[in-house]
């Protein structure tokens, strides 16, 4: 029953998380586009009011004319829309999903004993420390160098180094899939913290100064803008880290930390293309195509690097199955008895008579026949199971299951 309830919690939290993330990323991307596409106002009256930029757009059968005031508007409207619940809801739902999916069953999903053999409480504490420590270091870098000359370049370089170190540590300390997600959660936490600690407080201060009739300090807008820009470059790397859990060829690689770094770098480069593309259309900067080409080249290079090698079992090779020596010919075994021996040694611990994780039993021929496709996909194609390869299934054993499935998945 616990597994069933956790599955429901996982489903509903994932649903909420995706919805709120779409809202947050969508609004963030829109305002980046808006800032990059504003042009000086044509109307003299707008300029007198302090408008620094305007945009005409058409959407949904109507015309829109947003304007941006340089520091503050002449007066505040009765209703002012704020953008922060999208961020907070995304983080809350994401952290809840991380708790249900990884922290709740840390010994299964978070810990890979071949990397670090620590107690679940220790692994959970270190994982949570990643979220906190990364934010503190990132925030410290922004405070120290953000307002200096060439501050953006210095901050960018130092944050890149910080992310690389964090990715290396996570991939050496935790199970591969959990490590990728943890790095993504770490960066997403910094994004939401930017909104909570800097962007929204700065905006509230500006609003309070306007209401009090005081001069508005432009530093609040500059700091908020800087953190907002950081968030937009974090977005694609974070999304890759979150989605990569479904593709084991990324996080199961021996150098998975480098895979993660390269793919996040590619995402940031591609995001740079889209950010600068709006300015290019207005003649403000050169064509940003090289950024996109670099990002795509990195992705293509990683894909070529990770291409799977053919698994061949030569005639006469000895394969250990269920503790006994069995000889695999060039075609190899594909009978159910051989597959059952592999399942008994590698899978019954979690899907047997005593425990049925995900409500799945593999110790009966009928159940194996019913779930043959899922077994093939999880164990052979995606190599997601056994989780973190805790039972040390071999490539030859995966190949055996693959031959059995391709031959028709015959069971008694």
TrEMBL record:
The chain crosses the membrane at residues 12-33, 88-111, 123-141, 153-175, 181-200, 232-251, 257-276, 288-306. GO terms for biological process: proteolysis. Keywords: Membrane, Transmembrane, Transmembrane helix. One of its GO terms (molecular function) is aspartic-type endopeptidase activity. Signal peptide: none annotated. PROSITE patterns: ASP_PROTEASE (PS00141). Residues 3-305 form the Urate oxidase N-terminal domain. Pfam families: Urate_ox_N. SUPFAM superfamilies: Cytochrome c. This is Urate oxidase N-terminal domain-containing protein. It comes from Acidovorax delafieldii 2AN.
């Amino acid at each position: 029953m616990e597994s069933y309830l956790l599955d429901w919690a996982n489903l509903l939290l994932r649903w909420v998380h995706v919805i709120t993330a779409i809202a947050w990323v969508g609004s963030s991307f829109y305002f980046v586009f808006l800032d990059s596409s504003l042009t000086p106002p044509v109307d003299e009256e707008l300029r007198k009011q302090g408008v620094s930029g305007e945009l005409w757009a058409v959407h949904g059968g109507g015309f829109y004319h947003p304007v941006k005031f340089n520091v503050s508007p002449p007066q505040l409207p009765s209703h002012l829309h704020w953008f922060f619940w999208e961020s907070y809801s995304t983080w809350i739902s994401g952290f809840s999903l991380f708790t249900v999916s990884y922290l709740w069953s840390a010994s299964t999903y978070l810990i890979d004993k071949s990397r670090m053999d620590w107690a679940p409480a220790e692994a959970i504490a270190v994982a949570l420390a990643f979220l906190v420590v990364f934010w503190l270091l990132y925030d410290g870098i922004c405070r120290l160098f953000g307002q200096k000359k060439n501050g953006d370049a210095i901050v960018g370089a130092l944050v890149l180094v910080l992310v690389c170190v964090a990715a290396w540590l996570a991939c050496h300390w935790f199970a591969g899939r959990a490590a990728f997600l943890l790095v993504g959660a770490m960066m997403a936490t910094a994004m939401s913290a930017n909104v909570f600690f800097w962007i929204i407080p700065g905006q509230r201060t500006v609003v309070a100064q306007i209401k009090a009739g005081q001069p508005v300090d432009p530093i609040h807008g500059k700091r908020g803008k800087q953190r907002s820009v950081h968030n937009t470059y974090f977005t694609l790397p974070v999304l890759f880290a979150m989605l990569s859990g479904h593709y084991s060829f990324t996080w199961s690689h021996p150098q998975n930390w480098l895979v993660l770094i390269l793919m996040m770098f590619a995402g940031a480069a591609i995001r740079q293309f889209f950010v600068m593309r709006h300015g290019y259309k207005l003649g403000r900067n050169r064509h940003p195509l090289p950024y996109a080409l670099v990002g795509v080249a990195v992705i293509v290079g990683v894909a070529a690097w990770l291409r799977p090698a053919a698994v061949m079992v030569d005639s006469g090779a000895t394969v250990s199955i269920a503790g006994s020596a069995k000889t695999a010919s060039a075609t190899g075994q594909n009978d159910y008895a051989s597959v059952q021996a592999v399942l008994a040694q590698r899978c019954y611990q979690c899907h047997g008579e005593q425990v049925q994780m995900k409500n799945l039993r593999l110790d009966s021929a009928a159940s194996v026949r019913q779930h043959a496709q899922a077994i093939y996909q999880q164990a052979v194609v995606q190599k997601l199971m056994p989780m973190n390869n805790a039972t040390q299934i071999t490539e030859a054993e995966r190949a055996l299951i693959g031959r059995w499935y391709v031959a028709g998945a015959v069971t008694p």
